[in-house]
Amino acid sequence: MWSDVGKRAAQAALGTASAAARQHERNPQVDGFLQVEALSKAYDPARPVFSDVSFSLARGEFVCIIGHSGCGKTTILNVLAGLDQASSGYAYMDGREIAGPSLERGVVFQSHALMPWLTVRQNIAFAVKSRWPEWNAAKVNVHLEKFVEMVGLSAAIDKKPSALSGGMKQRVGIARAFSISPKMLLLDEPFGALDALTRGTIQDELMGIVRQTQQTVFMITHDVDEAILLADRILLMSNGNDTPQGYRPGGLAEVVVNPLPRARSRASLHHLDGYYELRNHVVDFLVSRAKAH
Amino acid sequence: MSPFKSLGFRAGVLSVLMLVVLLAVWRTATLPDAPVPAPAKALSAEQIEYLKMMGKDPSAAAPAEAGGSAKSGGFPTPMQTATAAWQQLRDPFYDKGPNDKGIGIQLAYSLARVGLGFGLACLVAIPLGFVIGMSPLLRRAFDPFIQVLKPISPLAWMPLALYTIKDSSISGIFVIFICSIWPMLVNTAFGVASVKREWLNVSATLEVNPLRRALLVILPAAAPTILTGMRISMGIAWLVIVAAEMLVGGTGIGYFVWNEWNNLSLTSVIFAVLVIGVVGMLLDLAFGRLQKAVTYVE
Q1: What is the per-residue DSSP string for B55-83?
Q2: Assembly ipTM
Q3: What is the pTM of this model?
């Protein structure tokens, strides 16, 4: 069984190589909308969590980052959001350095982060009013209702988060992030706490909305299938580990380009050619190369 | 479920039963002693004369207490207390000079003092607690002061207050102020410091300015904790006002209790004690309502 996996992984590696060649043709490094250069984070200077992480995102691209706990995915996302600072390295968006939080980057938090004393409407209104302080209440309302409808929660718009299920809360979080029309969306493992059925439904919804709005998205996930379904490229991160030659910090181990057609759905995903090769390659990476603690 | 089986109904029945038992015990304990006729008959003329000289005239006692051990000046019975209470409640706002004011007027004085002292404490403790809660530096810097000042009995401030302020009424308000400030300060600081990181992150990514963040995110998030502090403060203030007014005198429910003790009118004292309890309960209920209004379910 394991040898079988090995063979598939080898095939996938081939596929990745050819895909990488394709990626060079498109060359997102040049027209990189988001540019991350030599980022590193160290709480202990001798043992950085990750170092020398460089990648870029093209406008309208959906990129997932995958890796074990503790490899620094969330730190990278927080740096991009402006909520955390890297020990060294730079991040640019749209030609400007990211120096702090900004309305240009919408964030969906893992724990939905809705304010429990506000209704769904008020939660999103809080974001919309922050983005456009000059808007009057009627305009804010029209705007936010559009986004609530987009995630299918019109019926629950005047409910408090405590009256919603986990999936509905996360939908509100997504609607809130989209409602400020950010240039880029950062998703910190948004479906991690949801059951598999709900997760599937929201994945479909998210994909629909992203395709429709041409949103640039950077997303953390633990779920290989989720990454394959949603991402144009998948960044694989390895954990820092102690080798006989000394400590090796974690970092970006590999960038996998998703060769599957962009118009794909969850239902038919596993029938697509190349799906299993891709999936095995990523799983193989996580199992044998990512070095979980 | 029938209404007679509901928990509330059964608890109510039990409460009424307890009250009845309590009143019965009270009444039995304060009843005049049962007639002990034997000694009266045995008394010689000299003995009766002697008792009369000692102010214990056996013939003057009511026929029911022919024993002569008159207990009429003892602890009041429930009926006597109820009559006194009715007298007071019938005309709560009369004012017959400094030593004889209705219970309503005295209560109003006490409530005004508590309101003023408590209000001032709110104005100081909540903003200060906000600042302390937001700044770890200030929290550490203020901590020793709070820890030392908090356990001081508010009445210990009274001499200093009287000396510096030179006005007994304002001193009372000061004592209420100083005792209400600590629970509110500590609770506000704690509530503000423990606002969830994620809500602050949301407001950061939305570039919310500090004032808007304080009023729209931190204040509602910390409101239940702040209200808890206010409720505790109000409870303490109501405890302290009685003692403070006993000390400074003049007006107020505490002074009323002390004045009636000097008049040896225990019925009035019992009545006042009950009124203090009921008003304290109403104040606590009001803050409980407020607390419920700002509490959120996560």
Answers
A1: T--TTTS-GGGTTS---TTSSPPHHHHHH
A2: 0.82
A3: 0.81
